[in-house]
Amino acid sequence: MAADVRRYVQGCEECAMSKDPRHLPSGKLLPLPVPSRPWSHLGVEFITDLPTSRSHTCIFVAVDRFSKSCRLLPLKGPPTALEAAELMFNHVFQYFGIPEDIVSDRGPQFVSRVWKAFFTRLGVAVNLLSGYHTQTNGQMERKIQEISRYLRTFCHGHQDSWSQYLGWAEYAQNSLRQSSTGLTPFQCVLGYQPPLFPWSGEPSDVPAVDHWFRESERVWDSAHHQLQRALRRRRRTCLSTGAESLAVDQGHPSMSTLP
Description:
Layout: H1 2-10, H2 13-18, E1 41-47, E2 58-64, E3 70-75, H3 81-96, E4 101-104, H4 108-111, H5 113-122, E5 125-128, H6 138-155, H7 166-174, H8 185-190, H9 207-249
Parallel strand pairs: 1-4, 4-5
Antiparallel strand pairs: 1-2, 2-3
Helix pairs in contact: 3-5, 6-9, 7-9
């Protein structure tokens, strides 16, 4: 119904002739260039204002546009520009090499002269999103949505322990097969898929170790389940959108979803 109403309003002849648009003409929507190797073109973002967990209230997220692999780092709060640059070097560049390009929003850390000067010295191009146009870095925004959805689901009953198991959320995200590549991020970067959860289920002689593995398995299963649900939901949305566009092109505005 919403799509039908939108098309009806947009097709109003009187409104089109008498009302003036109040926004600037939209520019051409051009996708970001396709990288040629893993971790050469990155997106970075912060997830802030989370419930306090072991003094952490923020997550630093770095995503590889080629393999869709991600790094999730818990922080006690939004870092300064220099601290954010050091995080990138110590937790991303150190393992995957210096990239060619970094895309970010216009947060205070990313628009500062320190951030730009740091990466200029390393020969890394720094690109900022257009204001109020997050579609420029759509892959990053989608990854943030998936991680946030998992955290909301898991932290509903464990709001003070999300930072403890954030590593398993990253492991689950990097084990999720991507529809764009047909591979998991692990396979794309490493060439193989590590065991999803190598623990055999046999109890340990050390109670503390046994408890840690049981909790980790529960968290990993929850993370992987939520990410799979998010992937299926995204596929259904894409199919529905494609069917709606096809129906309009063929002159059948009433058919908005697939059978």
